Amino acid sequence: MAKPTYLAAAWRGSGAGVLLAGCSPGSLRRIWPGLAIGVVIALAASFVATAYGGPLLLYALFFGLAFHFLAHDPVCLPGIEFCSKTLLRIGIAMLGARITLEQVSSLGAGPLLIVAGAVVSTILFGVALAALFGRPSAEGLLSGGAVGICGASAALAISALLPRTRENEHFTLLTVVGVTSMSTLAMIAYPLLAAWAGLDATQAGIFIGGAIHDVAQVVGAGYLMSSHTGDVATVVKLTRVACLLPVIVVASALYRRSGDTAGTDSAKRPPLMPLFLAGFLCLMLANSLHLVPAAAASAMNSASRACLVIAIATLGVKTSFQALASLGWRPVLMLAAETVWIALLVLAAIKFAL
């Protein structure tokens, strides 16, 4: 008899419906079409994975790519955005219930130094590439921060520091599309690269968490390999996400000192510390102190997997390789070079320093 899928387990015992119950009727009507698309794609992927074997998250991604034509549908878009952003962050936050401080400390100082070095060097590399290609240094900061920290979220956070010009908005869009597309490719390729390089489960988690841009694809790639690799990759990635705070603070201070933030609206700036990171850390701390009952931790784990499968499906719906190709070769080459840089740097550090 086939094993229960992540989605079935989540809907039966995790209280996943509480999230929808907390939405107002108007909000629920607005997000329902896109949410239903994500759920249907995730259920189809879950059925195929259960019946025929194979990676559930990868099936969800590929099935989502086939429905890219719905990405700009005004009826479906609110729910797709809800799944790929809000539901994703809820799923990531609930992952904290399965990770403890003991696991984090077991990684040692080495991975933390790798993360810090990768973030700083990738941002500096991006600024250097911008100068080489004759682009503004702000574009190097934006692309390097997006690749080095947490993909589209970092791009949007850093863009809030820049003047509100059409050029900056265009480059922000390019960066968001670029890092999402490259993270999608990395989610598929990096587990294979980790296996080819002979990395063990912990090293593979450090590599995936340290080299892939977006949180969702890190989680997807990590758990494609094993639960342990996924846990390590999540911890390493969220350590990179935490680097957003000091980077934003330093960049803001530099731009304000130079007078380059004219035209920005501070009221619209995103929070320096993402709420889902705070939620993840709180749950991890509670779990470390044995304050989370085993049944609750199991339910949150199932709900987290369900949220992540749906989020991966809708991220696939949103991904457009044609849009990436149409935005020019120099910025795309910058993003690609930064992606290769951080991957090779992390891989070399793992092989020769750990």
UniProtKB/TrEMBL annotation:
A Pfam family of this chain: Cons_hypoth698
Any transmembrane segments, and where? 31-52, 112-134, 140-162, 174-198, 204-226, 238-255, 275-294, 331-350
Q: Where in the cell is it found?
A: Cell membrane
Keywords assigned:
Cell membrane, Membrane, Transmembrane, Transmembrane helix
Q: Which GO terms describe its cellular component?
A: plasma membrane
Key word Cell membrane present: yes
The UniProt entry lists membrane topology as: Multi-pass membrane protein
Q: Which family does it belong to?
A: Belongs to the UPF0324 family.
Q: What is this protein called?
A: Conserved hypothetical integral membrane protein
Q: Which organism is it from?
A: Pseudoduganella namucuonensis
